[in-house]
Write a structure and sequence with these properties.
The complex is a heterodimer of chains A (252) and B (383). Chain A contains ten helices and ten strands. Chain A is α/β, with parallel strands linked by helices. Chain B is built from 16 helices and four strands. In chain B, the strands form two sheets. In chain B, strands 1-4 form a two-stranded antiparallel sheet. In chain B, strands 2-3 form a two-stranded antiparallel ribbon. Classes of the chains: A alpha/beta (252), B mainly alpha (383).
Amino acid sequence: MSYFRAENLSLHFGGLKAVDSVSFAVEKSEILSIIGPNGAGKSSIFNLISRIYPPTSGKIFFEDQDITQQPSYDIAKLGIARTFQNIELFENASVLANLLVGRHRHSTTQLWQELLFLPSVRAGEKAHRRRVEQVIEFLDLEPYRDKLISGLPYGVRKVIELARALCSEPKLILLDEPSSGLNVEETDDMSFWIRDLRSDLGITVLMVEHDMTLVNRVSDRVIALNYGRVLAMGSPSEVQQHPDVVAAYLGA
Amino acid sequence: MRFLFKTDYEDDIKLFPHSGYLYSYGLLIAVLLVAPYVLSSYLMSQLVFVCIYATVGVGLLILTGFTGQASLGHAAFLAIGAYTAAYLQQFNVPFPVYFLAAGLLTGIVGALVGFPALRLQGIYLVIATISFALIVEEIMARWESVTHGNEGMRVKTMQLLGTTVPRDGPTFYYLCLAVLVLTIVGTLNLLRSPTGRAFVAIRDSETAARSMGINVALYKVKSFAISAAITGFAGVLFAHKLSFISPEMFTLQLSIEFIIVILIGGTFSLHGAVLGAIFLVMIDPFLTYLKDDMPGIIAGVAATLGAGKERAGHIQDAVAAFASANGLKGAIYGVIIVLFVLFEPLGLYGRWLKIKLFFQLFPLYKRATFKRQKIYVKSERNR
């Protein structure tokens, strides 16, 4: 059985088939990229997995458990974290607060304990902080700890979003266009980090990406989508040479 | 300029970032403790109202400022707290019991209001909370067996630990102050723990909060319940302070006053609730002053400028008529809100921070430091 599996996943908005019976599997510790032209349904698949949209039909399995009907907040508790294409950070909070929210699924304290800030809460906070600090170190975010998100440049925000996802200690991470809006150097950094995610932290990566250099550099396998359907699946070079993929991009 | 060197994770957790805070807040508490022996009884009474309004302000800040759910129904929560106290008093229930019961009951009602509010956002949530407040107002007027309807209810003088606590004595003031301080400390504790961060996360991006494992519905209900419970506690004190309660005290105007408290104080910090409460409580005597003295002053000015005695008399009458016009207070509140939203969106506390920074950085202060900026367009698709 695969680590993560989508079976005949569909998402229809009226007559529009944003995702049309897509099936794929992700193996443990694999980096799988989804590519495709704009509107191909890539982000929609992510939104289906993180249960922002309920699928029209189909099933999603994670670690042999059917998660199709889980409420969206439970997805993170299972160990699936994600980033967003258009950055969904908590704008008016500090970087630290943002990252600590990533620790939410690990918090065990009750409301009344928090009101009194009992020693257990204090100890929990310090433990969370220690984990956050490791992520900060991993992604070189030390200069930004106490800064508000609203004053930070786009490239840094992108990294902070990745950091927030990592703070939840996920088993599977969904990266929605990690390099969009980044310059060449930042994209290079990102590709190193994505490979480190797997090699150092053992996290399985599923990512949507347009930058083919990044895709080629980090992916084990690639899925090409168009009009909500799978065009090709395989190694990066195989998929790029697939006649249907070439046609979808170049319109030949 | 002070630079903080953090050497321990504790440095980010503790309530007072450096010793300066300890001294200034210690001094403030000391001043507040000796206040009853120094200030006139009128000012003491005003100070009690500041404490009560600030407590409500803190409650409202949790919901509106930190969870991002606007409410124009907090007068109703205050009413539920007040009426619970007045009702239970009839059965000789001791103060600590009905105080806690009022908070608990209001908290439960708050949670119940939170459920339908889960699917509402922005202006629609405001409308829903207004409707809730109107329903409660109507219930208070009609449920005569419990609330005595429009006749209102008398609230007996508080009995605490066998002693009588008159509503204008120092003990009552200390009690209100203690409730305010405990509320603030509890709220600060909440804000530095997972629940408080979840509230802020929901305020800034529900989608992201959800994908980080936050049960948005649960936390919104929690926020409503906590906010309402705090307002309920304040309601008990409010009832005792006024010693008489009736439905027309808990109207939409009172809810708007609470919104003014946090909007003018500043919605991003608990300081705002206290500053806003001071502002609101002090504006009333100012308006009375305007009403009583302004006509005479303006007429005097007109007379010295050469207007005849008769003209001056006409002017005095006109100004007096204007100053005592119905709804003038509401209009002034409206103007104040608009002016603050336009020119001082961070409120009085924001202004205080700006002044502080000005002196810290003098002469290098840049006006743009606090400028509101919105550079990146945020996606609204995943609401």
